[in-house]
Amino acid sequence: MTEFKLLSWNVNGIRAIQRKGAFDELMGMDADVICVQETKAQIDQLDDALVNPDGYHAFYSSAERKGYSGVALFSKNKPNKVEYGLGIDRFDTEGRTVIAYYDKFVVLNHYYPNGKQSNERLQYKMDFYDACLEFTDALVKKGHHVIICGDVNTAHKPIDLARPDENEKTSGFLPEERAWIDKFLSHGYVDTFRLFHPEEPDQYTWWSLQTRARERNVGWRIDYFFVTEGFTENVKDAFILPEVMGSDHCPIGLVIEV
């Protein structure tokens, strides 16, 4: 059996975390696969340290709109195959997905949309959710074990945010968003953090920058690692790294054996 460590982090601007020294810190955590979301950059805007980080193969999917969205995946071992997007233009132009195929599993790195701006963006978010589920189910039907990670932009249950009652009508904790996570899990996927911390409160991955919420730990758990149910016996740990600064999110991690 070989142990693999995976990390996922919404960096809120990859050039910004590089300036703060947090990119080097992330690369120094010795993870086998590192997934980041909200890179906010095109490849031609990045220096060599970001495009060719020491010891890693880098794969970027950028939005057509500059300074917006975007995901990247860094892998010590070169994947067998890498795909960008879901094959649906209205989502892929925003650079929200990169998929890496390995011998024993497939990693899907998603930056799920935020639905707070308008009803139209909320519908876009729900449509993206459904497209991701359909895409992932198709991979599973082909016999793949999958690891899905990223900023889902929804807290699943009241335990997953500091102030659930105040946010029942806020996108990120709306009934339809939470119901979609229920549907997703019912298709045979598992929230790995809750495998190890089923009832542990006050565990968050995002805090508002506007209210200094991080200092008071008034946060939301909206970043996840999911795996297929049949793969849970390979999962050895799932964790949150709230001490890592540089973004309004913190990194999350997963340790597997294959």
Q: How would you describe this structure to a colleague?
A:
The chain is globular. With 258 residues, the protein is of the alpha+beta class. The mean pLDDT is 97. The chain has one domain (3-257): Deoxyribonuclease I, Chain A (4-Layer Sandwich), CATH 3.60.10.10. The longest helix is centred in the middle third of the chain and has 23 residues, at 119-141. The protein is built from eight helices and 14 strands. Strands 3-4-2-1-14-13 form a six-stranded mixed sheet. Helix 5 runs parallel beside helix 6 (175-186). It has helices at residues 14-19, 22-27, 48-51, 89-92, 119-141, 175-186, 192-196, 213-216, and strands at residues 3-10, 33-37, 57-61, 71-75, 81-84, 97-101, 106-111, 146-151, 189-191, 206-207, 219-220, 223-228, 235-240, 252-257.
Briefly characterize the structure:
The chain has 258 residues and is α+β, with helices and mostly antiparallel strands. It has helices at residues 14-19, 22-27, 48-51, 89-92, 119-141, 175-186, 192-196, 213-216; strands at residues 3-10, 33-37, 57-61, 71-75, 81-84, 97-101, 106-111, 146-151, 189-191, 206-207, 219-220, 223-228, 235-240, 252-257. Helix 5 (119-141) packs parallel to helix 6.
Features:
Deoxyribonuclease I, Chain A; alpha+beta; 258 residues; 6-stranded mixed β-sheet
Helix content: 10-25%
Number of domains: 1
Largest sheet: 6 strands, mixed
What do we call the CATH topology?
Deoxyribonuclease I, Chain A
Global morphology: globular
- What is the CATH C level class, in words? Alpha Beta
Strand portion: 25-35%
Name the CATH architecture.
4-Layer Sandwich
- Gyration radius, rounded: 17 Å
Q: Spell the H/E element sequence.
A: EHHEHEEEHEEHEHEHEHEEEE
What is the averaged pLDDT score? Answer: 97
Instruction: Tell me the number of helical segments per DSSP (H or I, 4 or more residues long).
Output: 8
Distance between the termini: 5 Å
> In which order are the strands of the major sheet placed?
3-4-2-1-14-13
Give the class from helix and strand content and strand pairing.
Answer: alpha+beta
Number of strands: 14
Low-confidence stretches: none
* CATH superfamily membership: Endonuclease/exonuclease/phosphatase
